[in-house]
Specification:
By secondary structure, the protein is mainly alpha-helical. The chain has helices at 6-15, 25-35, 45-73, 80-98, 108-140, 144-175, 177-183, 187-219, 223-253, 286-294, 299-306, 327-341, 362-371, 395-414, 431-438, 445-450, 466-469, 490-494, 498-503, 515-518, 549-559, 577-587, 594-615, 653-662, 667-675, and strands at 314-318, 348-353, 376-381, 423-429, 455-459, 484-487, 506-509, 636-637, 640-641. It has 25 helices and 9 strands. The strands form 2 sheets. The protein has a 7-stranded parallel sheet, with helices on both faces. Strands 8-9 form a two-stranded antiparallel sheet. The chain is elongated, with a radius of gyration of 30 Å. The protein starts with 5 loop residues before the first helix and ends in a 15-residue tail after the last helix.
């Protein structure tokens, strides 16, 4: 007796048919094939499977909605002609919605309509194909010969789908050869993960429907009762997912409290935050802040690299935990730290807006310290504790505290002799570029002068930033021609002559294949310019736009945009380390020779390898601390009265006079520290002082 009958075998084979498995099968298969095509970044099997699973779920959801509408407008469900006509009509409606006028992408209702039209059209066409194939299969299945033919067609279509998937993955491998050797992306693993993803998504959908039906029975019949039941059900599930979300990011945020074994000791020099003389406690700096202040370059290393005398750089960092509920308080502490350390006596001030975790590009700050010969005071204020993609809601706070910082610096400079004023530079990367650019977004180049900012350098500006959305990265009324430059790599900046480089007030480094700078909701419904005929460096020729899928691809690519190895600098994606040294020197117009530049680039790689070795045991250590409670505005912080910046009016000379009454003299106490008597013996190979 056979273990499986012929009819059962036929049903199994048909169930896996990309065209006749279900009404959603054609669209699901299409979306899967699109999901494995080349995109901006390489990815692991898990990431690929998750992305494919989300693409399949979106196709299934669209097809289910189309099926529901087709059933509503079909009088006789048994009539194939009526079902085909209904799906044809829906495809036409979707086409009409998709063709709505596109006026600069400003009208969200129109944009949503176009996206809906895309999905309706695709779902209707897929359902039409399913209905036609199913009808043909039923007619031919009457005979054993016809059934075998149907099975052969199903098997052939599945084989073709797998073949196309394999070819798409091969194209990805050919484009990212070296990376794929490391990532080991395979089709079987990707399909397995996608299957699990779709299974989980489908189960959640069934659970949502089950709770809805239970609530409808509980509330009873009637339009009002049904509406109440569905509202309650949606609120319940929204609350559940919101709770899981916040639980997840809370766990992620705890990494800010971890203390790396290699960064457990406070710095000894008073020229940085977190030292014994600092207004900021070393514990409250957070993980990224402790790394930032501990890695300050000693003068001996700068002198050995640049072959010129050097000073001890000043690094100021105010952690999120210093004032977790009061962003302006962090700005006040930063301004007080600048007075304490004698920052205004340096030749250059570098004001930095970090990423969501408080991370600052070490290659950037180290390059700046090298090229300024240590005559630099850098100031950074943390505004969040989560990765940037989870910190979008923190941009406003980051913008607020950065504006207060630059305004406080501006007012302080107004009381100085113009000849003694330091240059003021601004830097931001990723979310930090967003927050710092928003400060001058409505004023453009005039805004730089308004805040006494000489130049700004931004890496990886997100497409979501208002600066990009408002077209400020292109010549216009607020950004005169020649004052703003956007570059993919050094060779583009090198084409400008000396006068053109000097005229640049704002320099943006944005790789053509950086998904963080390209990700935008418009990818859901509109083909982007960067997928046109003329493509930038690193954008695969084989990548094609499709609704929803391209958005999902770019989002997943953003998570893989900075897969860096210590000392292995690359000019691709969101990794700007290979370009950093040159752009810091040229963007800020800092003096250097080609020999010095080459020496700096060697040191940057060596320093990063050393830093990675110090951070390596961090995953094994769960050390942390209890954050200090928020301090009231204007209190005495370690005996120093902080300047008030709360509100619309920022105090200038008054708070400075008040500060001077309480603050100890800065310059005299720091002379010996600047000479570096507490520095350990260092070699140019990359050791750093604590």
């Amino acid at each position: 007796m056979s273990l499986i009958s012929f009819d059962q075998l036929q049903r199994i084979v048909t169930a896996f048919s990309p065209a006749a498995g279900s009404p959603a099968s054609p669209l699901e298969t299409t979306q899967f094939l699109r999901s494995v095509q080349p995109s901006l970044m390489p990815r692991t099997s898990i990431h690929q499977g998750a992305m494919s699973g989300l693409a399949i779920l979106s196709a299934r959801a669209a097809s289910n909605r189309v099926d529901y509408l087709a059933d509503k407008i079909t009088p006789n469900e048994d009539s194939l002609a009526q079902r085909l006509i209904a799906r044809g009509l829906l495809a036409g409606v979707g086409l009409g919605m998709r063709k709505l006028p596109d006026e600069n992408d400003t009208a969200w209702p129109a944009a949503f309509s176009r996206l809906t039209g895309e999905l309706i059209e695709a779902g209707a066409i897929g359902g039409f194909l399913y209905e036609a194939i199913t009808a043909t299969r039923h007619r031919s299945s009457a005979s054993r010969k016809g059934a075998i033919a149907n099975m052969a067609v199903s098997a052939a279509s599945l084989s073709f789908a797998l073949y196309r998937s394999r070819e798409n993955l091969k194209a990805r491998r050919d484009f990212f050869t070296e990376d794929f050797d490391k990532l080991q992306l395979t089709l079987p693993k990707s399909i397995a993960v996608a299957t699990v993803m779709t299974g989980v998504g489908t189960s959640i959908g069934f659970a949502h429907q089950g709770t809805r039906r239970a609530l409808e029975q509980f509330y009873g019949p009637g339009f009002i009762h049904t509406g109440l039941a569905r509202t309650t059900n949606n609120v319940f599930w929204a609350g559940a997912f919101t709770g899981l979300y916040w639980a997840g990011i809370s766990k992620i945020g705890k990494s800010n409290e971890k203390i790396d074994p290699g960064y457990a000791q406070p710095p000894s020099t008073p020229l940085v935050s977190g030292s014994a003389d600092s207004l900021c406690s070393f514990e409250d700096l957070g993980q990224q802040g402790r790394r930032y202040v501990s890695d300050v370059l000693p003068p001996s290393l700068i002198e050995a690299t640049m072959s010129e005398p050097a000073k001890h750089p000043i690094r100021i960092f105010v952690g999120f935990n210093e004032q977790p509920l009061y962003p302006s308080g962090r700005s006040e502490i930063a301004l007080a730290e600048m007075e304490r350390t004698g920052a205004y006596e340096r030749g250059t001030l570098l004001l930095i807006s970090p990423t969501g975790t408080g991370w600052v590009d070490h290659s950037m700050i180290e390059s700046a310290e090298f090229f300024t010969r240590g005559d630099l005071a850098s100031v950074c204020i943390q505004f969040g504790r989560y990765p940037s993609f989870l910190s979008l809601q923190k941009v406003r706070a980051g913008r607020q505290q950065f504006r207060q910082l630059v305004w406080g610096v501006h007012q302080r400079l107004q009381g100085m002799d113009p000849a003694d004023r330091p240059r003021v530079l601004v830097f931001g990367e990723s979310l930090g570029a967003w927050a710092s650019s928003d400060v001058v977004m409505k004023r453009g180049i005039e805004g730089l002068d308004h805040y006494s900012i000489d130049r700004a350098l931004w890496f990886g500006m997100p497409q979501l930033a208002r600066w990009s959305a408002a077209g400020m990265d292109r010549p216009g009324q607020l950004t005169p021609d020649g004052t703003v430059g956007v570059f993919d790599r050094w060779e583009e900046l090198e084409l400008l002559n000396v006068e053109e480089r000097q005229a640049l007030r704002i320099v943006q480094l944005s790789h053509d294949n950086d998904p963080i700078t390209l990700a935008t909701p418009t990818l859901l419904y509109r083909k982007p310019d960067w997928l046109g005929e003329e493509r930038g460096r690193g954008v695969p020729e084989g990548q094609r736009w499709s609704p929803v899928v391209t958005f999902l691809q770019t989002a997943i690519d953003a998570a893989n945009a900075m897969r860096d190895s210590p000392g292995d600098f690359r000019s691709t994606g969101h990794d700007y380390r290979a370009d950093t040294a040159r752009f810091v020197a040229e963007g800020y117009q800092l003096p250097y020779t080609e020999e010095q530049l080459a020496a700096v680039e060697v040191q940057l790689r060596s320093l990063e390898i050393d830093r990675a070795a110090r951070m390596k045991p961090a995953a094994e250590t769960e050390g942390g601390h209890t954050p200090s409670p928020a301090k009231a505005s204007g209190e005495h912080h370690k005996g120093v009265h902080l300047p008030h910046l709360r509100g619309t009016r920022t105090a200038g000379a008054r708070w400075l006079q008040a500060f001077r009454k309480h603050a100890p003299p800065a310059t005299e106490d720091l002379v010996e520290a600047e000479k570096g008597p507490e520095e350990p013996a260092e070699t140019p190979e990359g050791a750093k002082a604590n």
